[in-house]
Amino acid sequence: MLLEARWVVPIGGPPIEDGALVVTGGTIAAVGPSAELRGRYPGEPVETYADCALLPGLVNVHTHLDYSAFRHFAHPRGFGTWMLQLLLASRKLGMDDFAASALWGAHECVRNGVTSIADASEKGRTVALAARATGLRARVYLEVFGLDDAALPKTIERLDARLAQLRGEFETATTAVPGGPSSAREGPRLEWGVSPHAPYTVPPRLYREAARFARRAGLRMATHVAESQAEVELLTKGSSAIAKAYKAAHLWKRQHWAPPGISPVQCVAESGALGPDMLAVHVVHVDEKDIATLAATGTAVAHCPRSNLRLKCGIAPVADMIAAGITIGLGTDSLASNDNLDPFDEMRAALEVSRSRGAALTPAAVLRMATLEGARALGWDHLVGSLEVGKRADVVAVRMRGLETRDPVDALVAGASASDVRMTMIDGTPVFGGGNLPVEVADGFRSVRTRLGLMSE
Ligand SMILES: [Zn+2]
Questions:
Q1: What ipTM was predicted for this assembly?
Q2: If you placed Cys at 24, which of 29, 314, 374, 417 could pair as Cys (CB 3.0 to 4.6 Å)?
Q3: Do 2-56+388-433 and 58-377 have matching folds?
């Protein structure tokens, strides 16, 4: 199949005006000017997106699709209050509710031009089912919590059992290695990972054991770290809004946990959990030493600018982290702390906040964060993230508002939105081509929101 458009934005090279790409067996076989490729591939069926740009499928490196139904949940509240409200509200929902919520979220992703997600889920199965139903490429990190060190062996046992059960139910692969066997080269559509949740829910010993477990099982990891000032205070002083939230939710057993007295990043680093297989999420409250530690360990970062603003957490020092050589992808986080899963809105927010902390990013840099750098942060850059020969055909067609522009990247980042996505393709198969959300998906979502008392918001 030959896809042609007003612009092709490969990311790995300059934009191609009146460009095209050829997709064969789920793989990108050629990228170039349309006239040239039509000549080289005369028999290929042609699909024309005259008013669009073709981009690599967008990569959302941090989601919690289970929480999609919580959209507009986070009114202006600080982190501690938000966390408590979320904990209490979640108790109203059952597994089917989370599944309906995740399914809606996965549909929203493909409708918004997102083809790869990295999701952290306590359930795992909910997001895996949603990814399978929509064709979304997903890494699902199984979340691990546990404030009580005495419960640690049980926590790891449970993780092991959960993973075995999910692996039995879903046929999955670990991250493919370039040049590996052909099945590995095709890359994963669904992959498991492990997410020790955060330094305020996971003590150092559990970080160490969860990381050992993940590495033995060949799984990548993600963790929330240095998200809020409340987290820093809890770790350094032992008291904060998070401690209050724990007490209010009856989760706090002070005798089982003592503040380590160091920063969140140093806390995770000392447990040995940082590394090229770890994605550090948020990373707002960090100093020079923390940034140097992340860089030295090869840890990648998920930047979630809108969630950080919504929860009054602050602005991540992205320019400093890039200067230190850290790979940074872009994440929306969940709809419990964001308005939508629109990657273009997230790119604009990344651009906007970068102006107030360090050197401002360029539109090209934020588009790379939402594509190739995001893929690199997940260890998937040999598979997706750019339109290059040999990569998987994860492609989106996005309507261009200013067709006469000489710079489609600037135009897309400044003006495009999820509603401009005309087509989303994963592994060469279209998974969205316009049209409404399936009625049963919308109904399921609405009923969960009703249960949460959020229907009027
Ligand atoms: Zn998160």
A1: 0.99
A2: 29
A3: no
CA dihedral 232, 236, 239, 243 (to 10 degrees): 50
User: How remote is the CA of residue 119 from the centroid of ligand 1, in Å?
Assistant: 8
Ligand 1 geometric centre to CA of 85 (Å): 15
Residue entry with tokens 């979340």: 143
Distance CA 313, CA 331 (A): 15
Q: What spacing in Å lies between the alpha carbon of 202 and ligand 1's midpoint?
A: 14
**Tens-digit pLDDT profile for residues 344-369:** 999 999 999 999 887 889 999 999 99
What CATH fold (topology level) applies to the domain 58-377? TIM Barrel (3.20.20)
Q: How far is the CA of 32 from the centre of ligand 1 (A)?
A: 38
Q: Give the domain ranges of the chain.
A: 2-56+388-433, 58-377
- Ligand 1: centre distance to CA 320 (Å): 22
- How far apart are the CA of 357 and the centre of ligand 1, in A? 22
Q: Taking Cα atoms as reference points, which of 13, 4, 11, 12 lies closest to residue 53?
A: 4
Cα 81 to middle of ligand 1, angstroms:
16
Task: Compute the distance between CA of residue 147 and CA of residue 137 in angstroms, rounded to an integer.
Answer: 32
Architecture of domain 2-56+388-433: Roll (2.30)
